[in-house]
Design a protein that fits this description.
single chain, alpha+beta, Arc Repressor Mutant, subunit A, three-stranded antiparallel sheet, 3 helices, globular
Length: 88
């Protein structure tokens, strides 16, 4: 999973902000088979937390976590709070 997340992060321009909802959306767009396999075999919230932790692996190298939060649509088309990151 870390390799998929790393590729998505590297595609974000330096200096731009993004959140975990963005990474999840990009993962669905680029590798929906892998996403759906994980999605259907486990707990959605747990899997999405795992994805958020995968972003954190790149802290200080590719990303900086921001103090604030984002408010964006999740895969259920509902708005919710999400960790905010900056591509460095």
């Amino acid at each position: 999973m870390e390799l998929m997340v790393e590729k998505i992060i590297k595609d974000v321009g330096q200096g731009f902000f993004f959140d975990a909802h963005f990474v999840i959306s990009k993962l669905i767009e680029t590798d929906s088979d892998s996403y759906l396999k994980k999605f259907t075999t486990g707990n959605t919230a747990s899997y999405h937390s795992e994805l958020a932790r995968a972003i954190k692996i790149f802290e200080g190298v590719l990303v900086e976590q921001q103090e604030g939060k984002s408010w964006s649509k999740n895969i259920h088309d509902n708005y919710s709070e999400c960790s905010l990151w900056k591509r460095i």
